[in-house]
Amino acid sequence: MYFNSLIITIVCTPNIFNSDCNLDVAAYIDTKLDDPLSRRDDIDYVCEKPYFLVGNFWNVFSGKRQIGKHLGDLYRRFDGPYFGIYIWGKPYLVIRSPDIIKNITIRDFNNFDDRTFACDKKADDMSGNSLFIIRNPDWRNIRNKLSGIFTSGKIKSMYPLMVSNARQMQRYLLKYDKEILDMKEVSGKYMTDLVASCFFGIDSNSFDEQEESVFRIFCRKMLTIDFFQSFRLFSYFFVPKFVYLFKLKLLDTSYFRQIFLETLSEREKSGVKRNDLVDLLIHVRDMFSDENKNGTQFDTTCMVAQAITFFTAGFETTSNLVALALYEMSLHQYWQDKVRKEIFEAFSDDDSHISFEKLQQLKYLDMVLAETLRRYPFGPFLNRNCKADYIIEETGLKIEKGTPILIPIDGLHFDPHYYTDPEKFDPGRFEDGVKGYTNSCVYMPFGSGPRNCIGDRFGQISAKVGLVHFLKKYKVEKCHLTQDPLVLDAKSPFMTPVNGLHLRIETI
Ligand code: HEM
Asked: Are residue 256 and residue 361 in the same domain, yes or no?
């Protein structure tokens, strides 16, 4: 017992790393650790026994378990509305109850409107201005300005660009009839070209086999998780002090910044319009050019930061979704046939294209995507910072100001209370859509509340365009290189397969 307390004291000491660490919560969790799985009579609160420095994340830091799955494991070990864990000496409150999640992310959002990530404009003006990371009041100001950027109408005007990219993928695949391909790489190329044309206004020609596209090389480089990248990501997520101390940049985005600025200057000189994100951001910047309140002017730096954010937040998430949907359909041919039949029926008589409107009516494709996102939510947990002391009314627990909150999406998505036979790939469970599940906060692949994903519609439409064009011409099958069950990359904070996704493709 004494040893436990000693360890906890040492574990809590590295608050030098976390000036905003909430010591009261730490003390509260300490009192519970004599019997880590015990409960207090008055409140339903249990916590995990932490280890020196790594807290409850040894499996994650040692590369044994993907972070989302690890949080899911913890979720499954406990019941009750929440539990506590330590990460790098800092206490976190993990919420299990959908009702409390709803209150935190929606009803009482004003008290939880920031994420817990490091945000330092001086260390990194790109991530420091990014919508994903920026804190309030700046976030609210920028999100309001961007609210109209991904409406159905705006996405529709980018639809021809998306279709043109999907056709390039179709043509490229012709050469690989009856061969095994890494579909993660193919969907990566498709999404690279799509974001390059829709967000940066350039053709990146990733399917050109003569010479690898420079844009694609930089995309891959930026997203490769080596030791330093892991350290940087980890610091941004869990040890903000390192970011401020070492002036760490979240990502090396200098190439993308240069490309965006070149396109911007060309557009401004020529006045040419392409209905893409560059045009939309120019419009937002010009519309608010007079405003200079709160230091959140939407200037060129802020504009470039959003373009890079949309690119980083949208590219890998969507290409992952495309590849994983194909993977699941290769294992479940019944669903592949059902979706393909629906696609054939939706194409126009001349067989050349599917309209933007019809794309939205593909019910079985929607169900397959919803189920794929349930099984593999790219960002497997949400996080929120508690702005001021807050009482959970259901239980009376006081969450102290500054406490970081985690919402374990994997845990909820695989909870048999909410999903019958959760391990089974069953798109049929979404026959009536996802709304019921989303409203009750048990389905959150795009997050929850006002700080949810701003690009969810863009991501889903881009994925659908790619899949429709793929399935119209090709079948996918499992082969001897296909992982079954799928192995997730434990080194990545995101739910992405390790070593690609190899499938056999065949022309129809
Ligand atoms: C399948 C595709 C995608 C998935 C699964 C996904 C998932 C998510 C999740 C889980 C969040 C956190 C939400 C929260 O904390 O409540 C998020 C935020 C965000 N996503 Fe996505 N996303 C996808 C596509 C996109 C695309 C295509 C874009 C840009 C065009 C985008 C831009 C963003 C941004 C900017 C945020 C931060 C929003 C804010 O803080 O205001 N995402 N996304």
From this structure: yes
The answer on whether 47 is annotated among ligand-binding residues is: no
Tens digit of each residue's pLDDT (9 = 90 or more) over 272-285: 888 899 999 999 98
Nearest ligand 1 atom to alpha carbon 444: 10
Residue 383 CA, closest ligand 1 atom number = 15
Q: Output the six-digit token pair for 38.
A: 């015990």
Mean pLDDT of the 210-234 span? 83
Nearest CA to ligand 1 atom 31: 455
Is the Cβ atom of 312 under 6 angstroms away from ligand 1?
A: no
The whole-model pTM stands at 0.90
The residue range of the domain holding 161 is 129-378+414-507
Confidence of residue 295 (pLDDT cuts 50, 70, 90): low
Q: What is the pLDDT of residues 156-176, one digit of tens each?
A: 999 999 999 999 999 999 999
The answer to whether 464 and 166 have CB atoms below 8 angstroms apart is no
- Smallest Cα–Cα separation from 223: which of 185, 194, 267? 185
Same-domain status, 160 and 74: no
Distance CA 143, CA 338 (A): 39
The CATH number covering residue 347 comes to: 1.10.630.10
- In angstroms, what is the span from residue 310 Cα to ligand 1's centroid? 8
CA of 455 to the centre of ligand 1 (A): 6
Ligand 1 binding pocket mutation candidate from 446, 457, 494 (most atoms within 8 A of CB): 446
Residue 161 belongs to what H/E stretch? helix 152-173
For Cα atoms 211, 217, 220, give the angle at the middle one, nearest 5 degrees: 140
* Residue with CA closest to ligand 1 atom 3: 317
Where does a domain end: 63, 92, 118?
118
Summarised one tens digit per residue, pLDDT across range 42-92 is: 334 556 677 777 778 888 888 889 999 999 999 999 888 999 998 888 889
Domain co-membership, 79 together with 107? yes
Domain boundary pick from 118, 152, 182: 118
Dist. CA 166–CA 373, nearest whole Å: 21
Residue 329 shares a structural domain with residue 472: yes
Size of the chain in residues: 508
| Ligand 1 midpoint to CA 130 (Å) | 12
Q: Whose CA is nearest to atom 11 of ligand 1?
A: 453
Please tell me the total count of domains within the chain: 2
35 occurs within a structural domain: yes
Give pLDDT, residue 225: 78
Residue 8: per-residue pLDDT? 33
Q: Are residues 235 and 112 in the same domain?
A: no
Please indicate, yes or no, if residue 407 is contained in any of the structural domains: no
Are 77 and 136 in the same domain?
Answer: no
Integer-rounded Cα radius of gyration of the chain: 23
Q: Indicate if 19 and 149 belong to the same structural domain.
A: no
> Is the complex ipTM more than 0.85?
yes
Mutation choice for ligand 1 from 368, 453, 467, 496, CB with most ligand atoms inside 8 A: 453
Name which residue leads in pLDDT, 221 or 98: 98
Whether 169 and 102 share a structural domain: no
The H-assigned helical ranges of 45-182 are 58-61, 67-77, 98-102, 125-128, 138-146, 152-173
Q: Is the pLDDT of residue 3 over 50?
A: no
